[in-house]
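Give me C-alpha cells for this 207-residue protein.
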Amino acid sequence: MPNLLLNKQYFGCNAGDFRKAMINGIEPSAAPIFSKHQNEIFMKEILSQYAAYNVWANHKLLFQMQQMEEEKWYQQTPSSFNSLFKTVLHMWDAESIWFQRLRLHEKLVVPSATFDPSFKDACNGLLHQCMEWEPFIAQALQDDGVQSKLAYKTSQGVAYEQPVAEILMHVFNHSTYHRGQLVTMMRQLGETSLPVTDFIAFTRKSA
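Here you go.
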C-alpha cells in the first residue's frame, strides 16, 4: 500500500485537484453518473441531514455540560479556547457569522462582541443558531442553490468566493471539531459521564 502522506502531488493542492488525484486511475465507467439536477438534490439531502445532526450532537453535549459544577464552565483548560465557556462562545460566534454571510447581511453582528453572555446564554444562543440551518437549506436554497457561489470577506478582510455547499460543510465540520475539544476538556475537568455524539449514532436514532 503506497504511503499517501508522502505523496507530494497532494501538498498544497485545492479540494478539486485532491479529488482528481484520489480517483486517478479509476475507469470513468466505474463511477456512478448522475445528472446535475440529481446531484443538487442529493447534496441538499446530505446537507439537511448534517444540519439535523449538528443540532442533535450539540444539544446532547450542551445539556451534559450544564449538569457540571458552574465553576468548571469557566475553569482554564488547555485547548484552542481555554475554557468550556470560551469554546462554546466561539462556536456560536462562528455559526452566527456564517449564517449572516449566507443571508447577505452587510454588517455582521458578532454575539460575543454585542453583549456579555453567560455560559447558559452562549449554550442557548448556539443551539438556536444551529436550528436555523435546516430551514435555511430547505427553504432559502433553490435546487441549484447549494452550488451557487458566495462572495465574502474573512474577519481579516481577505476576499473569497466559494460554493454554498462547501461553506455549509465547513460550518458543520467546524462544530464537530470543537465538540471533540469540549469532550477532551470535560475529561480533563474530571467528567466521566459523556454523551455519544458520533454521526453513526445519530443515524441509528433517526432510522
